[in-house]
Amino acid sequence: MGEQGSTGGRRRGGGGGRRRKAPSTGRKAGTVAVWSLAGVLLVGGSGLGYVYLKLNGNLDGVDINAQLGTDRPKDVDNGSVDILVLGSDSRSGANARYGGDEGGARADTAMIVHLYEGRKKASVVSIPRDTLIDRPQCADRDGRTVQGQSRAMFNTAYEVGGPACAVKTVERMSGIRMDHYIEVDFTGFKKVIDELGGVDITTTKPIKDPDSHLDLPPGAHTLNGEQALGLVRTRKSVGDGSDLGRIQLQQAFMKAFISKVKDVGALSSPKRMLDIADTATKAITPDSELDSVTELMGFAQGVKGLGPEDVQMVTMPVEYDPVNPNRVIPLKAPAEQVWNALRLDRPIPAAALKDSAGDKGEVESVVSSGKTPAAGTATP
């Protein structure tokens, strides 16, 4: 993915665009929250050699570079880093309790994490899984060609072609080359939350969704893994019941998650941090340039100072599809404003989001990070 120097910036690579593996202290990154998982590794992974062996054994990388080749956007040399983060909704194995497997995993959650030069700020752009896009031709996990499709739902890219096809689809949509890829699965996500001791949020209204195993009265809560997963997956009880409302819940939870990880790093014992790191490394599938503890620890070094206030979270500008109101389509000009801002390593302009159906609704007033009950709410 181009070369990475010791300061974490990008350098243009050769024909293949492959990134040279630099010293780990120069690797930078971010989030379901990549920097949170990496931050856990930073603390829990330091120590004796056997710790590295144990955690390295948990990591199984995906060689995105080899699968995609050279047909990719230019790797811009401006010091920024872009990471595609996917939450997989596979219903197989331990995830079966969330419903039957309908033939393959899909990208239940998709976020582009953009780390600005200097690593003082980050932007996270969520892509609604129900977005209708032109999916490019991809190779599947066995190397067989999967034909492109017009008006395909975004999350089918992962379903038909796995991580490489998801990355290729995002790169075609945005014109931005992804430097890294990290996937988080349902069961691993729950276990990480439980190892952290839960995540604190406050609700101003009841949230109840039997389908996602969620039942929260108004007030302050420390969510366990099951509840956290229910919150980031629910489409009911908050907002308009669409995927856009769920994305806002995910964004609110991410801020609470980042805060929790920063607190745990300051308070936990080395053994507890090792347990968290062990669970976190089992929960993720990174690209092949982040599939070692050394690389992930260097990745974390660059972003350990980021807090929720340093992260701008938005949804890709979309509107409801006039043909099928259960789907959304990108707003071309506003979406291009978002992608152009990231390509230039600039903040996302508010004007790009004002006409979007995303980032609207009541979610922000219903769920907030931390235990600060709103007036009139009771703490359970």
Protein described:
The model is unreliable at 1-48, 91-103 and 373-380 (pLDDT under 50). This protein has one domain (3-369): Aminopeptidase (3-Layer(aba) Sandwich). It is globular. Strands 15-10-3-4-5-16 form a six-stranded mixed sheet, sandwiched between helices. A three-stranded antiparallel sheet has the order 14-11-19. Strand 17 and strand 18 (328-330) form a beta hairpin. Helix 1 (34-44) crosses helix 9 and helix 2 packs parallel to helix 8 (270-283). It is α+β, with helices and mostly antiparallel strands and 380 residues long. 33% of the residues lie in helices and 21% in strands.
What portion of residues belong to β-strands?
Answer: 15-25%
Corresponding CATH architecture: 3-Layer(aba) Sandwich
Give the H and E element order.
EEHHHEEEEEEEHEHEEEEHHHEHEEEHHE
> At the fourth CATH level, what is the homologous superfamily?
LCP protein
Mean pLDDT: 79
Q: What's the overall geometry? A: globular
As an assembly, this protein is: single chain
* E-strand count: 19
Helical content stands at: 25-40%
Q: Note the main sheet.
A: 6 strands, mixed
Total domain count: 1
CATH class: Alpha Beta
Q: Please, how many helices?
A: 11
Strand order of the largest sheet: 15-10-3-4-5-16
CATH-derived topology: Aminopeptidase
* CA-CA gap between termini: 48 Å
Overall SS class: alpha+beta
Q: Stretches where pLDDT falls below 50 for ≥5 residues?
A: 1-48, 91-103, 373-380
Evaluate the radius of gyration.
20 Å
